[in-house]
Write a structure and sequence with these properties.
- The complex is a heterodimer of chains A (129) and B (406).
- Chain A contains five helices and three strands, in the order αβββαααα.
- Chain A is an alpha+beta fold and 129 residues long.
- The chains are: A alpha+beta (129), B alpha/beta (406).
- Chains A and B meet through strand 1, strand 2, strand 3, helix 2 and helix 5 of A and helix 9, helix 11, helix 12 and helix 13 of B.
Amino acid sequence: MAYSEKVLDHFNNPRNVGTLDKSKKNVGTGLVGAPECGDVMRLQIEVDEETGIIKDAKFKTFGCGSAIASSSLATEWLKGKPIEEALEIDNMAIVEELELPPVKIHCSVLAEDAIKAAIEDYKKKNGQA
Amino acid sequence: MEKKKLIYLDNNATTPCDPRVVEAMLPYFTEKFGNAASRSHEFGWVAEEAVDYAREQVAALIETDAREVIFTSGATESDNLALKGAFEMYARKGKHIITVKTEHKAVLDSCRRIEKMGGEVTYLDVDHQGMIDLEALEAAIRPDTIMVAVMWANNETGVIQPMKEIGEICARHGVLFFSDATQAVGKIPVKPKEVGVHLMAMSAHKMYGPKGVGALFVNRKAPRVKVTAQMDGGGHERGMRSGTLNVPGIVGFGQAAEIARKEMAEEAQRLSRLRDRLEQGLLKLEETYVNGNPDSRMPHVTNISFKHVEGEGLMMTFNKEIAVSSGSACTSASLEPSYVLIAMGLGDDLAHSSIRFSLGRFTTEEEVDYAIEAVSKGVNHMRELSPIWEMYKEGINLEEVEWSEH
């Protein structure tokens, strides 16, 4: 299977790989997927508490090239977005941007789930959920 | 690292044609193009003679009579012919077949078809090294068992089954023994008569011959085995496989067999040395495991799980430099982990993390060293990206994490 240029770019130069300090109140962590299924994504956001804007995002992903590219792209899109807007990121937008083939759509779904899980975690920590 | 040409370490998927094979084939496309079944003129005689010679060459490699070699389009066809053909031919004896969960899809799917046709199939388990349990095999034999189908060497792990012992069990119970020996023929000594195999599938393109040609060995005496043809037509190949013979392909297969017969011993030694070098190089990485049976396996294959790294992603880090496969090439179009490794009891996570390296006649030591370097680099890179590697390093028990299955 040939990967699109965009997937290859994110795979070869993944953006925002890393770990944020989960103990901080303004950091939300989403861990989705399972090793048995062949992909696990961990996406973290750091939110500016005054403005509600995501000021940093990091990821680590165990998975195929499309899973890594989807999460890398998600962190790019998250940075600088207010959390309410971030909740609107749809997996199909990721599919379109990365030109994912049908067998890889689940990677984009996982990325959307990871975004939602990270935001939910942040909200929970801050009594907003 | 200096950029080199793409290194091919996927010889279990297919091998390149040996140039000596291509050379032998060429005249049979043009000036010697005759139909081996044309009895009335020189063109046909020349083609028939070439086929007879190739049949001798293949028979010599496996130490059988040339009349026991039925040419086909490849091992998939041979598997289908052996299983479905015997099921039909021996319908009066029974309808039960015994096979193994780690067989090639061509065998497993033929068995599924036989079940739909009213047959019954027992699928034997393997242990964690991929070996079948001989007692379980013997216990599975019933009065209506026609055949036992066990592959000689596994395509994904290179594990070699105890052929002689299986042959003895089959002989004791008067059951036919069929083996898909595609991965073994031409690489290790394969002598069906010596171990009591009555039907055996092989393929030219796994042994430096051309694609699109293979054979089924069919035992002629004690017992005289026959299979019902699965294609109707001109009654070629003793009535078991109709269709104009692929003369250039068969000539190439014969030549490949002869080269293998002469060079196999030395080649196997060289390859096992290189394979061990590759394995030792890669096992220096933490949490890296070899899948299979170290005491009974092919000399050129190793299947390795790199824990907490996903195989497909890992391959992407070096697929511009090294060609390998994760799972078998036949199933890697799907996203399921290898059923062979799952049958061996590997967890889905380790099965998703496995890569098969299969070396070949043209693999060099330099290529192996390069592969060690590139793969190690890829594994380290992927582990830096892997959240579960990080969790493992932090001492988190991954079995206790509540994963969101999807």
